[in-house]
Amino acid sequence: MLELYTWSTPNGRKISIMLEELGLAYDVHPVDITRGAQFDRDFLRISPNNKIPALVDRDRDITLMESGAILLYLAERHERLLPGDEHGRWKTIEWLMWQMGGVGPMLGQAHHFVHFNPGKAPYAEQRYHKEAQRLYGVLDRRLGEHPYLAGEQYTIADIATWPWVARCQWQGIALADYPHALRWYLQIADRPAVRRGYGVPNPAEIPLP
Ligand SMILES: N[C@@H](CCC(=O)N[C@@H](CS)C(=O)NCC(=O)O)C(=O)O
């Protein structure tokens, strides 16, 4: 049995979307990070970095934190959403790492300074808004050349990036300014598994720009 520890955030939604795409049964444990539940001692044993998401695979006695590691684990184990050919596999990992090292950390900071605390730290606000614009430029160029981030196929790189783009308004980004990213966003928003996964652990409507 799979157990998902999560909350209604971009990193959490990556994993619920992935589990829905794979059609797997899983138990959901909501970890309310707005109330500090990520610091509970029991959760620390599962997620040593005190962050969601985390996944426990009871059948295989594996516990994982870090959304990128969890996506790779599920993709490898079920041989889905990570292409088998060398080129496709490495392009997927490349864009997954771009999400993990760039999109997640930078847009996360944009949420803090642009959405939650505007006017409090103008330098930080400007820096992360500019970085968000740069990252959307990279995303848009890539998706102007290929239907999906890794190339021709929908992969875990798209699943990792898409929930962050769903929060583009928090980052001060108008998706209409990035037409290739908008096309990709709407296409993925239409997938039934994405709609189901977006509403875990709390029901939520996908924002449509
Ligand atoms: N690199 C981690 C980041 C996880 C992360 O930042 N999770 C956030 C929610 S999106 C969290 O748990 N925040 C609670 C906190 O910072 O105390 C991953 O991709 O899993």
Notable characteristics:
alpha+beta, Glutathione S-transferase Yfyf (Class Pi), Chain A, domain 2, 55% helix, Glutaredoxin, binds glutathione, single chain, 4 strands, four-stranded mixed beta sheet, 209 residues
Structural class designation: alpha+beta
Task: Provide the helix percentage.
Answer: 40-55%
User: Which radius of gyration do the C-alpha atoms yield?
Assistant: 17 Å
How many E strands?
A: 4
How would you write the strand order of the largest sheet?
2-1-3-4
Total domain count: 2
The coarse silhouette is globular
CATH class division of the largest domain: Mainly Alpha
Unreliable sequence segments: none
Written account of the structure:
There is one protein chain. With 209 residues, the chain is of the alpha+beta class. It folds into 2 domains: 2-80, Glutaredoxin; 86-191, Glutathione S-transferase Yfyf (Class Pi), Chain A, domain 2 (Up-down Bundle). The protein is 55% helix and 9% strand. It is built from 8 helices and 4 strands; from the N terminus they run βαβαββαααααα. It has a 4-stranded mixed beta sheet, with helices on one face. α4 packs parallel to α6. Bound molecules: glutathione. Residues 9-11, 33, 38, 50-53, 66-68, 104 line the site of glutathione (GSH). Glutathione binds at residues 9-11, 33, 38, 50-53, 66-68, 104.
